[in-house]
User: Fold PASTA domain-containing protein from Sphaerisporangium aureirubrum.
Amino acid sequence: MIVPDFRGQQALNAWLAGHDAGVLLQGPDPDGADPVMNGIVVAQEPPPGTRVERWRAVTVWVRDAPDDGSGVREPRDPAPPSRTLQAGLSEEG
Assistant:
């Protein structure tokens, strides 16, 4: 088997792609409580293109996925200065 390049992929998608390719993805601490499911793959060992036996473990390191900004938008921080709206209205009127 040739190890695919998992870097830049969502961890769960990388795990699924690895399974389809015949390798198993694991985190740097295979006995840890956190499975490789969340975040973005930033590094892997063995590196992409390495020839390995089928179902060999490939260790991947992940980081949290960037916030896509689709969450709650209010309240805004910092709050606008008090009396800003009132001052703008008195200038127009």
About this structure: The chain is about 20% helix and 15% strand. The longest strand covers residues 57-63. The radius of gyration is 23 Å.
